[in-house]
Amino acid sequence: MLKMIRQAVKEDFGSIVEMLEKAGLSTEGVEEAIESFLVVEDGEENLIGTLGVEIQNRTGLLRSLVITKELGGDDLFSLFQEVLKLSKERGLEKLFLISNRKASIDFFHLLGFAEAKEDDVEELAEFTHAQKLSTVDECVVMKLIF
């Protein structure tokens, strides 16, 4: 099945929010960051994945990864490659992610992420999405420098 990754537009907001709510994820700040989201559509233009970046100055935080079963491993890798490209185009110097899924760590290492140090974590204090995750147990913070 043909899939397309593209930058989200304002008209995608409702579909992205619906997908995030269904996955039990926060939708706070999505509207303001909509142009820093990517969406994946199937051949019939159904939304089957999304991934966003919350940006402050030259630092970004990945957020709101939701995929459906139609999105395979290669598609997921492509989605991350595209979000890295978008981050570079936006002039970001650093990109963080926060995950509580230990099984994902190796995948993120393949993309160039490394575990963040304590000083790095403090830098995320002002990010809306990081504040939401501060109550989640056993989170790992990772960082990529461009």
Automatic annotation (TrEMBL):
Database matches in SUPFAM superfamilies: Acyl-CoA N-acyltransferases (Nat) (SSF55729)
Entry keyword annotation includes Transferase: yes
InterPro entries in the cross-refs: Acyl_CoA_acyltransferase, GNAT_dom
Domain of life from the UniProt record: Bacteria
Domain N-acetyltransferase, first and last residues per copy: 3-134
GO terms for MF: acyltransferase activity
EC number(s) given by UniProt: 2.3.-.-
Secretion signal, residue range per the UniProt entry: none
Gene3D superfamilies membership: 3.40.630.30
Keywords assigned by UniProt, alphabetized: Acyltransferase, Transferase
Protein name: GNAT family N-acetyltransferase
